[in-house]
Write a structure and sequence with these properties.
six-stranded antiparallel beta barrel, six-stranded antiparallel β-barrel, 365 residues, single chain, alpha+beta, 8 helices, Thrombin, subunit H
């Protein structure tokens, strides 16, 4: 479910605006999906904090009105209410009202503590206890931000809405100006495309080349907010890779970049396909379009598929297919492939740090 729709559903649930059928369906979703239940707890806590802030501002406003009324009616003088004297006078005069307000504050505090306790227990049950503090800090940061907005009455900059996608795959830059290689089957029948970097920034993209025979596609980022990368850290060779060569890949089988390593197990792909390699590596749905890189920082292929009934048998398009693609589109687009690998000789950790900024999640609908 889209995050915006989910937050709306949580608010409707909290306010009792759901039908009986919707309420039952939503409760089942929370039971069966820990992530949705986590978001429901967090957002409920956030809404309660907002209400608590509103109550405090309303109570302060009420005290100010009482003071102004007493002054205007001549019952008290403005100068009589200073420092501690003001507090003592209002307490004695409106003890009952203040007591009721205090009771409300206690109830709110107890409710908040209960929510935090339930939230902590839920995290421990799912073995994600270390995340509890971080999430609460995030919620508190959100509350502080809302407080600042209310008190300063500032207008925030509009936030670019997240793209509602039907699928997720991988792509990587072949030119720092925003040209990204992925699989043809990834973007098949997609009407809208975005690419997302590791920070979660999304950019609109369009296909400029699609070849179903080689399962290769090249996208162009058209979003003006995209910042080009002057020099890509890896190179893309024309030569074939060697049997047994150690390789690794970065991709998006989940909502964060994932590393995998293996070796080249055959120089041809499925049923002897000479446009592909067979590699031994662990991949999952979402890895399609990810770069296959050797220890020298050369992109030798692009992950495309795996054999259904064989464990670890994966196929990758050979990088030389990218050169063939450029020959076909050179009249319409100016693409310059990287020829020097600046990560050659670095240890794997530092290689990954330089590469991951060039690997994107590809989403579409």
């Amino acid at each position: 479910m889209d995050d915006i729709l989910l937050l709306d559903a949580i608010e409707r649930y909290k306010k009792g605006e759901m039908t009986a059928q919707e309420r039952t369906f939503f409760e089942e979703m929370r039971k069966n999906n820990p992530d949705i239940d986590q978001m429901a707890v967090e957002h409920t806590f956030f809404l309660n904090e907002l209400e608590r802030l509103g109550d405090r501002k309303s109570y302060k406003h009420t005290l100010d009105e009482v003071e102004n009324t007493l002054v205007n009616e001549g019952i008290i003088a403005k100068k009589q209410l200073k420092g501690k004297a003001k507090v003592v006078y209002l307490w004695n005069r409106y003890r009952r009202t203040i007591t009721v307000a205090a009771c409300i504050a206690v109830i709110v505090s107890i409710s908040t503590a209960t929510i935090v306790s339930m939230y902590s227990e839920n995290k421990q049950a799912s073995e994600l206890t270390p995340l509890v503090d971080n999430k609460i800090k995030i919620i508190e940061a959100k509350v502080d931000d809302i407080k600042d907005q209310l008190e300063n009455a500032t207008v925030s900059t509009p936030i670019k809405p997240k793209f509602a996608a039907n699928f997720r795959a991988t792509g990587f830059l072949i030119d720092g100006n925003g040209f990204i290689a992925t699989n043809a089957h990834v973007i098949n029948n997609a009407k809208n495309l975005v690419v997302e970097n590791k920070k979660g920034d999304q950019f609109i993209a369009i296909p400029v080349y699609v070849n179903k025979a080689t399962d290769l596609a090249i996208l162009k980022v058209t979003d003006t907010s995209f910042k080009k990368i002057n020099a890509l850290p890896y190179s893309i060779p024309r030569a074939s890779a060697e049997l047994g060569e150690q390789i690794f890949t970065l991709g998006y089988p989940k909502e964060e970049v994932v590393y995998g390593e293996g070796y080249l197990s055959a120089k041809s792909g499925y049923s002897g396909d000479t446009t592909s390699y067979q590699i031994s590596i662990s991949v999952n749905p979402g890895n399609s379009g990810g770069p296959v890189i050797n220890k020298n920082g050369e992109v030798i292929g692009i992950i495309s598929s795996k054999e259904t009934n064989a464990d670890g048998v994966v196929f990758a398009i050979k990088s030389k297919n990218i050169y063939k693609a450029l020959e076909e589109i050179k009249t319409s687009e100016s693409i310059k492939l990287p020829s020097v690998a600046t990560i050659k000789g670095l240890d794997r950790v530092h290689q990954i740090k330089k590469i991951e900024d060039c690997v994107f999640m590809v989403k579409g609908n």
